[in-house]
Design goal:
The chain contains one helix and five strands, in the order ββββαβ. By secondary structure, the chain is mainly β. InterPro entries: DUF951.
């Protein structure tokens, strides 16, 4: 299994879209759990890192690193 590279404030695409119709999520917190916020309706969800790694499809936009 290849490790997907993602970081804080990256915009990612998940395997399943959000009920609001959007499928772009911003990573707003990283730790043992990862909190992502829907770019469409601003709803945020917290999921365990293991589940996030399984459900994430790809990084759409990399956050600018200072």
């Amino acid at each position: 299994m290849e490790m997907k590279e993602f970081g804080l404030n990256d915009i990612v695409e998940m395997k399943k879209g959000h009920p609001c119709g959007a499928n772009a999520w911003k990573i707003i917190r990283m730790g043992a759990d990862i909190r992502i916020k829907c770019e469409g309706c601003q709803h945020s969800v917290m999921i365990p890192r293991i589940d996030f790694n399984k459900k994430m499809k790809k990084v759409l936009v990399k956050a600018e690193t200072e």
